[in-house]
Specification:
single chain, Nucleotidyltransferase, domain 5, DNA recombination, nuclease, RNaseH-like_sf, about 190 residues, 5-stranded mixed β-sheet, alpha/beta, magnesium ion binding, 7 strands
């Protein structure tokens, strides 16, 4: 059994979603948004840190999954998003949580089957997958989708490594790591 906290970072609204994974079953535990209704960025980051820390204390997750930064047209917005994301990651690391990152396209592909799905499609599928009685708001649904993506990723990774070929592949990859870096060896 694992409790997974998913975070959809934003400098003004940071969505969060918490699920419990037990085998193939996913259970909704909570979701919402951290709203930073202040003008200056340092105080917004402070609120994000405090909010993520409070959520971690409340739900006691085992894992932390967050959306990767995507290339934005506006450099200033991308930098602010990166700072909000970094703040959430620091909160997770200060609570000794392992951090996992997922591209937005992969999250959409996992949850809806379409990498270019829009927010309403993600909301609908999250509602269906978690058997929710109401549709979560967009930022919370995105965060839940990130948590669901992580749950599926660890489930399939575990299944693959239990096969004979998976065990051989895992051993081969581990033998090629040196000081945290993957090294290709000439055979």
């Amino acid at each position: 059994m694992s409790i997974i906290l998913g975070i959809d970072p934003g400098s003004r609204i940071t969505g969060y979603g918490v699920i419990r994974q037990q085998g193939l079953h996913l259970e909704y535990l909570g979701s919402g948004a951290i709203r930073t209704e202040v003008a200056d960025l340092p105080n917004r980051l402070k609120r994000i840190y405090a909010g993520v820390s409070e959520i971690i204390t409340q739900f006691q997750p085992d894992m932390f999954a967050i959306e990767e930064v995507f290339l934005a047209k506006n450099a200033s917005s991308a930098l602010k998003l990166g700072q909000a994301r970094g703040t959430a990651i620091v909160a997770a690391m200060n609570h000794d949580l392992p951090v996992f990152e997922y591209a937005a396209r992969r999250v959409k592909q996992t949850v809806t089957g379409i990498g270019s799905a829009d927010k309403s499609q993600v909301q609908a599928m999250v509602t269906k997958l978690l058997r929710l009685s109401a549709t979560p708001q967009a930022d919370a649904a995105d965060a839940l989708a990130i948590a669901i993506t992580h749950a599926h990723t660890i489930k399939y990774a575990h299944q693959i490594t239990q096969t004979p070929l998976g065990k051989q592949t895992q051993a081969l990859l581990q033998s090629r790591y040196s000081r945290g870096r993957f090294r290709l060896k000439a055979e």
